[in-house]
Request: fold
Amino acid sequence: MRAAATTILSGGLAVEIAEGGPGDAGPVAEFMLGLSLDSRHDRFFSIPSTEALHAEVRSELTTPGNLSLIARTPEGRIVGHGLAAPLAGGGAELAFAIADDVQHHGLGTTLLNGLVSAMRARGVRRFEATMLSENLPMRAVFAGAGFTLVAGSGSIEAVLELAD
Ligand SMILES: CC(C)(COP(=O)(O)OP(=O)(O)OC[C@H]1O[C@@H](n2cnc3c(N)ncnc32)[C@H](O)[C@@H]1OP(=O)(O)O)[C@@H](O)C(=O)NCCC(=O)NCCS
Reply:
């Protein structure tokens, strides 16, 4: 999924979704820093310093095997990022961040579908994610996509096993 694909979100906002690369690390980090504190906390389970956030995002976008999908408005503003990171034992871990003013319009679901589809084409069959227990929108997105949700202490694990 190298070329940008245009998706119309509920509410009529058009976004272009394309695979991100190392050159996108700075802009994606700035996008993350523009999220509300609540959203940043939900994404990172803490509020990382600016330097730590830049380092984390750079790692996400440069680690071989990782897949980033970036959603931009037609004007080029980044409004969403989805990450699939291969796990040591097989499978891939997923994480998402959507701009606060674009949440609840289907972009999280769209990026989830895009990541699962692209990683499936690479042979990945198991998908996992961890979210804070109180993160109801993320739980709803995973549950709606057929993931099994397992409660931990303060967090929830979402797991999907695809048939071959
Ligand atoms: C969690 C997050 C990624 C969700 O993204 P989003 O774009 O708002 O998600 P969507 O619009 O696709 O889905 C959310 C809504 O659609 C509903 N939905 C999604 N897929 C659905 C499905 N298949 N069936 C039914 N409902 C569904 C959800 O119930 C939810 O409803 P709401 O709008 O009433 O809350 C976003 O809120 C976010 O970035 N939060 C901060 C960072 C974060 O929490 N990251 C997660 C770390 S893993």
Residues 39, 42-43, 95-98, 103-109, 129, 131, 135, 137-138, 140-141, 144-145 surround coenzyme A (CB under 6 Å). Strands lie at 5-8, 14-19, 67-72, 78-86, 92-98, 126-132, 148-151, 155-161. The chain has a mean pLDDT of 96. Helices lie at 25-33, 37-44, 50-62, 107-121, 136-144.
